[in-house]
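Much of what follows relies on a compact textual record of a protein's fold. Here is one such record, which you should read through line by line:
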Amino acid sequence: MPKITAQQLRKRNQESAANATIKPRMIGSPYDKSQRKAKGTASGSNGTSESSRHFGPMFNKDLGQHILINPLISQGIVDKANLKQTDTVVEVGPGTGNLTVKILEQAKKVIACEADARLAAELTKRVQGGPFQHKLEILQGDVMKRDLPYFDVCISNTPYQISSPLTFKLIFHRPLFRCAVLMFQREFAMRLVARPGDSLYGRLSVNCQLYAKVTHVMKVGKNNFKPPPNVESSVVKIEPLNPPPPIDFEEWDGLIRIAFSRKHKTLAANFKPTATMQLLEDNYKTYCASNDIMIEDSFSMKTKVLGVLEQTGYSESRSSKMDIDDFLKLLSAFHDAGIHFC
């Protein structure tokens, strides 16, 4: 074999480069079929054929896009909703429609709320020309920035960053719906269903359970999603109380905020901070002015508040052990004394 010098090799490379045709690299839609084919051909070197690969849309983790890919879990979620043929179902975050198609089989109508225009298009394409096309309506945009239409049931593989806002949007939705079956991050779901004495029992638990019956349905492992999230998930079922309790939520939440500011401390300790007493005193003075009530010169807000706690027997109680009835009694006693929280 003849020897090739470095100078000859460089010359050959320069001639090859001069004769080569340079093709620009096209960057287009993730749905571009030509690109899918090219990628499939390239993957043939590792033994994977184009026909055995699925190239779907790129998922945006910033939007909480983790698509549920286990059909058994999808069916289990739909089954727990106990759908009727007359039901209108709102689905939040349908993604590519794995849950949607199962809901369409059992409901009269599905209103799918999808923030990502690409996934909305994917879902439209999935049902287009099929028997359920007329039953599907897609609302593209942020579900938290729109009023929800009338519905009987809500089903959602919920984007985790809107878990709390969506929960309370549903709880305060009127007219009342029958139930909601929602996928949440495991810890958030456990906080929703927590009971007095549980480590995760807190303000979220109490506020949600005031207006609804909340039950844990199933645990869902991270490998049931594409792409897999960093945490485990759970499904809960929320059934609004009908009629809802006649409670001013801002007043209620004001009390609960103070009670759970340090949930393992006594209520007396939680009410003693200066900022808390000042807030309650300002509210009390406003109440007295509105009702033509004279305030004595020797008035002490601290004495009045601690007196209510003593009279109700909750002075040494801890919010982590108190149930909703306890908080309702306490709120009523404060109102009877003219003490308000907002």
